[in-house]
Amino acid sequence: LRLPDTELYMGNAPTAMRFMTTAVNLIEEPGTLVMTGDRQTKQFAPITDLVETLKASNCSIDYLEKTGALPLRVQTTGNGWKGGPLSLTASVSSQFVSSIMMSAPYAKNEVTLKLSSKPIVSKHYIDITLEVMKLFGVNVIRNSDDTFTIPQKSYVNPSVVRVEGDAAAAAYHLAAAAVTGGTVTVENIGTASLQADSRFCSLLAKMGCDVKQTETTTTITGPLPPVQKAAAAQAAAAVKVDGDDDAAGGGSGGGSSRRESAGGTPELSAIAQPIDMGGMAESF
Predict the structure, then answer these.
(1) pLDDT (tens digit per residue) in 217-241
(2) What is the pLDDT of residues 47-64, one digit of tens each?
(3) Which among 152, 225, 232, 247 is most buried, taking Cβ atoms within 10 Å?
(4) Contacts of 246 (CB under 8 A, 6+ apart)
(5) Residue 186: left if φ>0, alpha if ψ -120 to 50, beta else—which one?
(6) What pLDDT, on the 0 to 100 scale, is given for residue 258?
(7) Which residue, 194, 203, 183, 184, is CA-closest to 245?
(8) Which among 65, 47, 57 is positioned nearest to 25, based on CA atoms?
């Protein structure tokens, strides 16, 4: 790695910014590097815990404006990143953990990373990081639930890499099938997905959708749109579903059906089932 000729502008990319915060310390060339981003990234992407961990391993990092936010000034000594035993607070973002792990194979000393806080947020993203590193030839040793040893080793590019789609974004398209009674197929998200959000289809199955999956595809066929007169029954059935259900049926039933649907809410409330009227009460 070499020092860039200009500042590193990360734009509105807080994930990439956090990953680069560790990676730039691998540069074996003495000098100064400034990393910044747009107003949103500066204001809403905290990095304090990651920076403090890096500084504890002899990285020279300073905040140029607000403490805990971009822009950063990184002084490189030409000797790379020391590495070694590290302690990291992981209660704010799992991206801090991924940042350390992904650069650790190139540290001067083997990195043992201890996550010093509870709870560890978004642990499934840490699992994804481990799986991707394994795909590129680096097997991280999981000493315990909160301690990892990352070997010193160069990454090796596999011949083929399948990049999963964004399961959280795909959920909206799958939900469209559920509410319209249509069919939607999403590719690059299936049973082999590493993302926790890929399990959204199991919630749709509980709500009556037909779910078909391969390792790399998910197809949802929704039930017929609910009959407006039966919206109260739909609300009662939703009590058995883990999660929230909207019994509005598309909101096209008119005032009469809205009033009849609302008529069932006192009975559901009587059995301690929370009901969100969505503002309908004021229209009666």
Answers:
(1) 999 999 866 555 555 555 555 555 5
(2) 999 999 999 999 999 999
(3) 247
(4) 278
(5) beta
(6) 39
(7) 203
(8) 57
